[in-house]
Design goal:
Blueprint lengths: L8 H13 L10 E5 L5 E6 L31 H8 L9 E6 L3 H10 L3 E6 L6 H13 L2 E4 L12
Parallel strand pairs: 3-4, 4-5
Antiparallel strand pairs: 1-2, 1-3
Length: 160
C-alpha cells in the first residue's frame, strides 16, 4: 500500500521557492521563485539578489538612505526575474510560477512576456501599493491567473 501523507504538488513547489529564498543575502526580505511546466517539472528557480558578477559585499543592502544609489532598490534582481533569466528550458509558455511574495509590476511584465500563465504566491504584504495594484491589472488583462497559496499546516524540516 502506498503512502498517503505525501506532500501535494503545490506544497512541493512552494517549498522549493521557500528554500530558494534562503539563498538571498537581503537582510529584510528574502524572496524565492520556482517555475514549473505543465508536466510538474521544475524548469528554473531564483531568489532576490545582486546581478551575477556583483560582489554582494560591495553593494548596498539598505532600504533607505540619503541617495537612492545607497539603497538596494536600483541594484537587486527580483526572484521572479532571476528565475525567468536562469531558465535554460527554452519557452516558459504555459508554465506556473510559485513565488513567496506577490510580484511587483516590473516582474509582472516579465512574467507575462515569458508566457507564464499562472502565479501561485505565498504572501501579498504589499497589496496596497501601486506597483502590486498595477501587477493585478496587468495579470487580469493578459489572462495570467493568480492564486494565493493555502498552507496545509504540514511541517517540512531540513537538517543541513
Amino acid at each position: 500500500m502506498k503512502r498517503t501523507d505525501y506532500i501535494s504538488w503545490d506544497e512541493y513547489f512552494m517549498g522549493i521557492a521557500m528554500l530558494s529564498a534562503q539563498r538571498s543575502k537581503d537582510n529584510s526580505t528574502q524572496v524565492g521563485a520556482c517555475i514549473v511546466n505543465d508536466q510538474h517539472k521544475i524548469v528554473s528557480v531564483g531568489y532576490n539578489g545582486m546581478p551575477t558578477g556583483c560582489d554582494d559585499d560591495d553593494m548596498p543592502w539598505e532600504r533607505s538612505a540619503k541617495s537612492p544609489l545607497d539603497t538596494k532598490y536600483p541594484f537587486v534582481c527580483h526572484a521572479e526575474l532571476n528565475a525567468i533569466l536562469n531558465s535554460s528550458f527554452g519557452s516558459l509558455s504555459g508554465c506556473t510560477l510559485y513565488v513567496t511574495l506577490f510580484p511587483c509590476n516590473e516582474c509582472a511584465k516579465a512574467i507575462i512576456q515569458s508566457g507564464i500563465r499562472r502565479v501561485v504566491y505565498y504572501s501579498n504584504k504589499y497589496a496596497d501599493t501601486d506597483g502590486v495594484k498595477a501587477s493585478c491589472i496587468l495579470f487580469d488583462k493578459c489572462g495570467v491567473k493568480t492564486e494565493e497559496y493555502k498552507p496545509s499546516g504540514k511541517n517540512i524540516t531540513l537538517s543541513v
